[in-house]
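Notes, p. 3: input format for complexes.
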Amino acid sequence: MIKTFIYKNLNEGSIIVAKKISNLIKKKEKLNQKCVLGLSTGSSPLKTYSELIKMHKKEGLSFKNVIVFNLDEFYPMKPNSQFSYHSFMFNKFLKYIDIQKKNINIPKGDISNKKIKSYCKSFEKKIDNLGGIDLQLLGIGTNGHIGFNEPGSDINSITRKIIISNHSRLALSKDFKSIDNVPKNAITMGVKTILKAKKIILIAWGKTKSKIIRKTLKEKTNPLIPASYLQSHKNTLFILDNNSSSYL
Ligand code: GLP
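Output follows (248 residues plus GLP):
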């Protein structure tokens, strides 16, 4: 059963998400443990990240015990490109906090095709060796994708190279100026990788997400709506606003 919490708007919802993340970090710190976070790109988590930066600067929230794994990266993509998810994560979040460089794991978009398989395996292994992801933050595509697990993705999929759907490339064309500039591929954590997380928080704001949120929660789990696989996860919360929940 997915638990849903509805807030007035993304500002209110994001403050709650940031608090949940910071509480977990502090709890783990007290226990002298690492806190393994799965992070997402896109516009949805931006306010959560800015709240966490505020907590770091004003309340002394430390990320020294935090290890992050990002969901995905375009392929091919140089990490220092302005369009990369590496740049996104640094510019919107990571460069403002005290996380250690060695604790940042974002799938590489600049490895050779030949090495992708073994690279993806090692990415999975790294997560497993740390005991798994404690909390995975997710956005959702209007086609129901999570990470870049596009419609048709298998429940047993692990980190791999995928083809970005035309639907998603069109949605991304706003960042790339034109759809022709949007990469055709990406490396993404798989559905299985995501479902292994101990806790998952999916956030969705605004009217454009309302239809897919309804389908994800109300329809039977099916590969055409990858986010619907979350129904089988034991500890998933959806944090929504009035608009994204308006069809529930
Ligand atoms: C992107 C990312 C996803 C993200 C989604 C929604 O393409 N691969 O991880 O959750 O699309 O983006 P937004 O939050 O901007 O709506």
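The helical segments are 10-30, 46-59, 85-92, 116-129, 166-176, 191-195, 210-218.
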